[in-house]
Amino acid sequence: MVALPLRIPVVIRVSVSPPGMGVHSAILNVADRETGLTLHRVLATIVAAPPLDARNGFVIRSTGQVSRPGSRSEFVRVPAHTSVLELAALARDGFLKVQICDPTGRYVPEGELEWLDFQYLQAGRELRRAIENPMPGVWEIVILNDRDLFRLDQNAPFPLSSNAYELTIRAISARLDSRSDSPIAINEMAPIETRIVSSPLAVLQNKKPAVTRNASQRLFEVVIPRQSGTLVVNLANVSDLSADLDLYLFDCTSGYCVLRGSRVDPCPIQSLTVHRPAAGTWKVVLDGFSLPSGNAHADLNEIATTKPANYFRMGKAGVKARLVEVLGDSVTSFETRRKVGRPPALPGEAEDVELVTWNVPLARALVVPSIR
């Protein structure tokens, strides 16, 4: 029983204990005690999503049926500090389509290939997606079985039967400890098969730019030498985590500046990568899109490898050069391939070592060559 004084707000605490995973809803009625009439009602909906955590090895597998026509939603809670959210959807029969929504409810397209999102999976075919730096929270994966709404199947059975699917979702994260000449790779989430990308002689420039409301943009020039393998621009260690700092990279080697990449999501860690960049002048723009505290500063690293990267697939333990697969909670070390005894030729010269999966850098370490 709740007493409601006139024009005085009253807090009503409701405890919820969902019987299982999925979407649950209930109607809360405010009724008059004497007459029993309903004065007000409100619909309350919650989503109980299974978390990707250590208890399930950061991997969730599910199977289900989708009515034809119809749809079914699967939910998963993605932890913070996830580098890659990997999704594999298999259509066991029929024609199915997959759509992904982030915790804000917004649809997440397949990058520049948005037309792929409107293609149906035929029976036996698998869709694989990798989402870089996913927002932590509850994600929704919608399995659609609506092909009959757009084309008539004369041979379809009656009544229409539902179609089966399999779904596997994994959270991936790893890091590199580069406190020695032989970095240590540490897997922090789901088991992964990754690659080591070793790019010798990375020329590093480190800046600590600051932006304010009166000077919200900073411009930096980067001169790329000939035969460079990769240009990487990293933004990290933002002083105000509520600030929204955007990163833009322009190719000005032709005399005109052309936008080659941008990161405009509200994330304190940003990274832009260009493979085989043209030699000449490039420009980096740091834009303080939102500065709640009035100012912010961060670390801006510009890394240009002076040689194309060498790609190594990480196999089982015991292979040459001690390149090993990073699985579970294992901690493994590997040797970087460089010319022993070669002194640095330029200030800031180092070796850029990455762990890569889905062409997404999971971790990067800069190893300064030692003279032996």
Please provide a written account of the structure.
Helices cover about 0% and strands about 50% of the residues. The radius of gyration is 26 Å and the shape is globular. A hairpin with a 6-residue loop joins strand 11 (about 175) and strand 12. With about 375 residues, it is mostly beta strands. The N and C termini lie far apart (about 80 Å). It has 4 domains: about 1-50, no CATH class; about 55-170, Jelly Rolls; about 175-200 and about 310-365, Immunoglobulin-like (Sandwich); about 210-295, Jelly Rolls, CATH 2.60.120.380. The strands form 7 sheets. Strands 13, 16, 19, 22, 23, 25 and 26 form a 7-stranded antiparallel β-sheet that branches. It has a 4-stranded antiparallel β-sheet with strand order 3-10-5-8, with no helix packed on it. A 4-stranded antiparallel β-sheet has the order 4-9-6-7, with no helix packed on it.
Tell me the domain tally: 4
Strand pairing plus helix content: what structural class? mainly beta
Shape: globular
Provide the gyration radius in Å: 26 Å
The helix/strand order is EEEEEEEEEEEEEEEEEEEEEEEEEE
Question: What's the arrangement of secondary structure elements?
Answer:
Layout: E1 22-31, E2 38-48, E3 59-66, E4 70-78, E5 84-91, E6 95-101, E7 121-122, E8 126-132, E9 137-145, E10 163-172, E11 174-177, E12 184-187, E13 195-207, E14 210-212, E15 217-224, E16 230-236, E17 244-251, E18 258-263, E19 270-275, E20 280-290, E21 295-297, E22 299-305, E23 310-313, E24 331-333, E25 349-357, E26 360-367
Antiparallel strand pairs: 1-2, 3-10, 4-9, 5-8, 5-10, 6-7, 6-9, 11-12, 12-24, 13-22, 13-23, 13-25, 14-21, 15-20, 16-19, 16-22, 17-18, 17-20, 25-26
